[in-house]
Specification:
The structure holds two protein chains of two kinds. By secondary structure, chain A is mainly β. Chain A has no helices and nine strands. In chain A, strand 5 and strand 6 form a beta hairpin. Chain B is globular and about 40 Å long. The chains are: A mainly beta, B mainly beta.
């Protein structure tokens, strides 16, 4: 079955740039989505269609795509950005999948 | 904007079934696809499937085939997910989430608050 692979953790200092990658064969053909989840809360969409940002999501969140890897970039990281981040995509049969999640720690 | 409100926490015995509801705060869910996603304690997100409340059409993740049923009520204001033959591995928070049928590319922009199901 198709899989999405993320690093388990990423750590950055406030004001620095955090980059979280997500790899999987389906990403070369299907859009990727990114969700932020703070402890005890439901996930929140921060990027859709690889690079689009929903209204209300800060401009410091951006997405990019290259081949079978997509990247979520958070520029000028703030303490409030500390959370778990999940990438999500689908296969050609419409089966959705999530990456294993990346814990972003703001030092 | 239609918000999603889920039913309360459930505690079940192994082998039982559980049915979790997801209700529109106003109007109906007819214009949306509703997905169900669960999260075991300390674990990641796991996709379970979706339902089209307008047609009743469903698609389930292979892992849950034969054990999950997604339905909607006749008013299309509430959808349900039922999971049978529960084991302790099914202990998780269950979320419903939606996107517009006419914009399937926008992702799951609205989520319910989650329902904790404990199997013990």
């Amino acid at each position: 079955s198709s899989e999405l692979t993320q690093p388990p953790s990423v750590s950055v200092s406030p004001g620095q740039t955090a980059r979280i990658t997500c790899s999987g064969d389906e990403l070369a053909k299907q859009f990727a989505y990114w969700y932020q989840q703070r402890p005890g809360q439901a996930p929140m969409l921060v990027i859709y269609k690889d690079i689009e940002r929903p209204s209300g999501v800060p401009e410091r969140f951006s997405g990019s795509s290259s081949g079978t890897t997509v990247t979520l970039t958070i520029s000028g990281v703030q303490a409030e950005d500390e959370a778990d981040f999940y990438c999500q995509s689908a296969d050609s049969d419409g089966n959705w999948m999530f990456g294993g999640g990346t814990k972003l720690t703001v030092l | 904007q239609v918000q999603l409100v889920q039913s309360g926490a459930e505690m079940k015995k192994p082998g039982a079934s559980v049915k979790v509801s997801c209700k529109a705060s106003r109007d109906t869910l007819a214009d949306y696809y509703i997905h169900w996603v669960r999260q075991a304690p300390g674990q990641g997100l796991e996709w379970m499937g979706w339902i089209n409340p307008q047609s009743g059409g469903t698609k389930y993740a292979q892992k849950f085939q034969g054990r999950v049923t997604m339905t909607r009520d006749t008013s299309m204001s509430t959808v349900y997910v039922e999971l049978s033959s529960l084991t302790s591995d099914d202990t998780a928070v269950y979320y419903c989430a939606k996107y517009p049928q006419i914009q399937p590319w926008v992702g799951l922009q609205d989520w319910g608050q989650g329902t904790l199901v404990t199997v013990s």
